[in-house]
Input
Amino acid sequence: MITRRIFCAAAVTAAVGVPFATPVFAAGVGPITDKAQRLLKFYDGLGVEHKWLAGAHVNWETGEPDGGPVSAIGKHTHCSAFVGSVSKQLGIYILRPPEHGQLLLANAQLDWLEKSGAAQGWESLPDAVAAQVAANKGMFVVASYRNHDSRKPGHIAIIRPSLKPVDQLTTEGPDEIQAGLTNYSDTTLEKGFAGHPLAWARGKEVRFYAHEWDGTITPIA
Output
């Protein structure tokens, strides 16, 4: 279980006499806005730990098994389908079916972000701290890695708003929500991308992108 690093304003008030209305946040990443809190609630209600599960063919929008054929090559995971579904519900476009099939979609999504993302409102971010700041403002933020072997899958995940201190952001990465070999509603980027060591542990090749969110959510029926 991950201990959330959100400081309690009431506790600070009791300890040092800071007025309750004073924002309390980790230096360098800013407060979690009301908009970001809405995103957190939405993310936590997606049920990713029970949907978009590896090893089955799934409906990319709902994450439920759809009975489709599964290739005997590798263990099918659905990180990119999950991100595609979430982005659609938030009214944000990222490459997804039917424009691209689920196979090797994570690699293709990073290619698309690099080449076409800016024209669709995506902003490239320089590092994990910038990604956390954007997520805490209520932007939709993804962490994306392209496999060096184009025949093998990359990985993509969604950054959660968090008040994690900057030193931890630079060592273990932001907190994220993902589908993958293991689905997590809340884990560190370091753990979520562990199957791709060059993404974080050894290479820091993960790339961060953010998109403004207008506050609307359209759940998948």
In short: Residues 1-25 have pLDDT under 50 and may be disordered.
